[in-house]
Amino acid sequence: MIAEIIAIGSEMLTPFRQDTNSLYLTAQLNNLGVEIGFKTIVGDSLKDIVRVTTAALSRADILLLSGGLGPTEDDLTREAVAETLGLQLRRDPAVVSAIERRFAEHGWKMSANNVKQSDVIAGAAVLMNANGTAPGQWISGKSDGKEKIVILLPGPPHELKALFESSVLERLRAKVPPQFLASRILKITGMGESACDARVAPIYKRFTDVDTTILAGAGEIQLHVKTRGPTAEAAERRLDEIVEKLEAELGDCVFSDNGDSLEQIVSYFLQMRSATLAVAESCTGGLVAERLTSVSGSSRYFVGGVVAYSNELKTELADVPQDLLDVYGAVSEQVARALAEGIRKRCGTTLGVGVTGVAGPTGGTAEKPVGLVFHALASESGMEVIRRNFPGDRARIRWFASQQALDMVRRKLM
User: Fold this and answer.
1) What one-character DSSP code corresponds to residue 366?
2) Which residues contact 46 (CB under 8 A, 6 or more apart)?
């Protein structure tokens, strides 16, 4: 079965409000084995809500609408759905009484317009709202031989969640055929989106019962893989089959197949190898250290480091020789090497990372443009240096650089 979610409210078409209800509803429906085909946000316009609802009913088995059930003139969900379905609204005395009782219990004066919330679409089951005055509604019926379910839910998230769990979840469970969705996220670094897809497309195209989506981020590609099965075990087995082939093709470019971040994976490897790490950062401004220490228990393997922007601090805190700075400049392979080895020896760690570059937007030259970053990794067995030219603004370049530094540690420990 395919579901569609419509969030109603002009405020969500501004930069100041987000539709978070649909994220919650998506998770709940996926747990029932129901996929979401479409999500829509529509303003408080009767004509627009009717148009969107009509389109949704033509393609979805289950339609959930959130918001627009309040007492004001711009709360038009009930009217729009009734018009879409060609049904009448009727005022339910029991709901009127429940609203009046709620106001009385709180000692509030009830405005006359609150009775609008007791208007129920003909044939709908009322879903009483224990946390607010606007009840939900459940409407089901046949269309072209198929059952359609329309669910009206209040907009405030705490009301929607409580009402869904108390009055909707079990109703849906009884209607939905037994099916299970399974999903996996492969996280990939060291290659671009197009290069990744060129390698994996011949594999995932053979699995016609598996949905695959590729998402590009800063220094990371995510490969979302999803399938369904008659049991959770069957769905997971099918995923295991394709994931094994994808990982074999991409090799060590895959750093996670369970959603873990790169810093979490680095944490696992450092602890597995009983290794310790220190960092000396310039252009990343402590971002590598911040990511490492965002993982609980990082004190077991991360000793510390320095953020050294001035040449004087590079020399004083990471033992970078002054002559290297004079001859090659702060942004250079030589200084990156010195940062990594200097901080490793200063802190007595297994590994040392050095990062130096031009994060921009100013400071670039023809020889050393904005986005140029040198990453060095020092260990007892030697030194590795990687030069990269990252695109984007300052924040994006710094994130790319931190990603590259962490990935060097991961690959070294593998």
Assistant:
1) S
2) 76, 79, 80, 83
Say how many C-beta atoms besides its own lie within 10 A of residue 144's C-beta: 6
Distance CA 208, CA 219 (A): 29
In order along its 414 residues, the chain shows pLDDT tens digits of: 899 999 999 999 999 999 999 999 999 999 999 999 999 999 999 999 999 999 999 999 999 999 999 999 999 999 999 999 999 999 999 999 999 999 998 898 899 999 999 999 999 999 999 999 999 999 999 877 789 999 999 999 999 999 999 999 999 999 998 888 999 999 999 999 999 999 999 999 999 999 999 999 888 999 999 999 999 999 999 999 999 999 999 999 999 999 899 999 999 999 999 999 999 999 999 999 999 999 999 999 999 999 999 999 999 999 999 999 999 999 999 999 999 999 999 999 999 999 999 999 999 999 999 999 999 999 999 999 999 999 999 999 999 999 999 999 999 999
Alpha-carbon separation of residue 242 from 205, 210, 226, 248 (angstroms): 10, 9, 10, 10
CA distance 91 to 69: 14
Please return the burial class of 154, using the count of CB atoms within 10 Å of its CB with bins 0-12, 13-18 and 19+. Answer: buried
pTM reported for the whole predicted model: 0.79
- Give ∠ CA 305-309-315 in degrees, rounded to 5: 70
Q: Structural domains in the chain? A: 2-175 (3.40.980.10), 193-256 (3.30.70), 262-413 (3.90.950.20)
DSSP E strands: which ranges in 198-350? 210-217, 220-229, 254-256, 277-281, 302-307
